[in-house]
Design goal:
Elements: E1 7-12, H1 18-27, E2 31-37, H2 41-45, E3 51-52, H3 55-61, E4 66-69, H4 76-86, E5 90-94, H5 101-114, E6 117-121, H6 128-138, E7 145-152, H7 177-193, E8 198-204, E9 215-221, E10 227-233, E11 248-254, E12 257-261, E13 267-271, E14 277-281, H8 293-307, H9 315-334, E15 338-339
Parallel strand pairs: 1-2, 1-4, 2-3, 4-5, 5-6, 7-10
Antiparallel strand pairs: 7-11, 8-9, 8-15, 9-10, 11-12, 12-13, 13-14
């Protein structure tokens, strides 16, 4: 495939978060979105695209180069299988991927056997601040990395109406903070420091109206003695005009300096022993979600497809995130550190 070939994309799902997918596809040069499918046909029609009430009907009308699955986990396996059977060659599927590790492994195997490129839409590693932080660390800016902490503080989990205006199914998820949200930092920490070798977790439920945990702390061991901490509390907030830009604040510490992430998406460097903070990345100007990370992820997949390269966020690679997630829950249940 040449860099000038136009690619077609069809999207399955027209719920809350899909708006960021549709918008991003519309801005990627050489990509044309050819359809939207959703059980709620009115929601599909609202995208302004050819609308279908099922994935099967959409794929009968046209087989796209890329299928973008924007559904919760219960719909992932059947959607990927339908796409494979229809001859779709590249599939992007939202996280958290599939219902459990066994189902995810089976789907990865089926896609691989069919020669289908299967990607998980894990977009946080594509946020510009994490790309900048990783680059700075690799360049040795903070010396030898020692530890990092992310304080998850989206402030959206208080009261009986928590999450109802955006993603109401959050209230019914038996596993919530880690399964739905914490996996973002499982993937981000491993993107920056390598796959965890062990985890220790202490999880709890603060809002009684939801089914799963909404707060907790998870400690990760990484290669080279690096430790990272996810300190999550969905009821608390942080200093930001848009609480969903970074969803919190972070500190990355090394032997010669540290990098700080603020709620406005800016990154600053402070040398060890100094009180001067130097701007590495300015405040993020993007008014939408997460520094336009959805656009960056989808652009990455398109670029890889055109160049014949493998995307960095394949479903096969994402199986590690699922294994770490399961280890986190095992640690919380058993009250001990769990080795990977």
């Amino acid at each position: 495939m040449s860099a000038t070939d136009q690619l077609t994309v069809a999207c399955l799902g027209a719920g809350y978060f899909s708006q960021f997918h549709y918008d991003a596809w519309s801005r990627i040069e050489g990509v044309r979105t050819v359809g939207s499918a959703d059980l709620n046909i009115a929601a599909a029609r609202a995208t302004g695209l050819p609308a279908f009430g099922s994935l099967g009907a959409m794929l009968e009308a046209a087989v796209p180069d890329i299928l973008d699955i924007i559904l919760p986990p219960p719909g992932h396996a059947s959607a990927v299988r339908t796409a494979i059977a229809a001859g779709v060659r590249t599939v992007i599927c939202q996280k958290p991927f599939c219902l459990d590790l066994a189902e995810a492994q089976q789907i990865v195997e089926e896609a691989d056997k069919a020669g289908v490129t299967l990607v998980v839409h894990e977009n946080f590693r594509f946020m510009p601040w994490y790309r900048a932080i990783r680059s700075q660390i690799k360049e040795g800016r903070i010396g030898t990395p020692m530890q990092a902490t992310f304080r998850l503080r989206p402030g959206d989990g208080q009261g009986p109406d928590a999450y109802l205006d955006r993603q109401p199914y959050f209230q019914q998820m038996p596993r919530f903070l880690i399964h739905e949200t914490g996996v973002h930092w499982v993937d981000t920490f491993r993107f920056i420091f390598g796959d965890p070798t062990a985890v220790y977790a202490d999880l709890r439920q603060l809002n009684p109206v939801i089914s799963g945990e909404d707060a907790g702390m998870v400690l990760f061991d990484h290669p080279g003695g690096v430790r990272t901490l996810l300190d999550g509390n969905r009821l608390s907030d942080h200093a930001a005009d848009n609480l969903r830009r970074t969803m919190g604040e972070a500190l990355f510490e090394g032997t010669t300096g540290s990098l700080s992430l603020a709620g406005d998406g800016s990154v600053s460097f402070r040398a060890f022993g100094s009180d001067i903070c130097e701007e590495v990345l300015g405040p993020d100007p993007w008014p939408g979600f997460g520094g336009d990370c959805v656009f960056h992820l989808q652009s990455h997949v398109v670029d890889c497809l055109r160049r014949g390269k493998t995307p960095e966020n394949t479903a096969a690679d994402y199986l590690t995130v699922i294994r770490v997630r399961d280890a986190i829950y095992a640690s919380a249940e058993q009250g001990r550190k769990v080795s990977m």
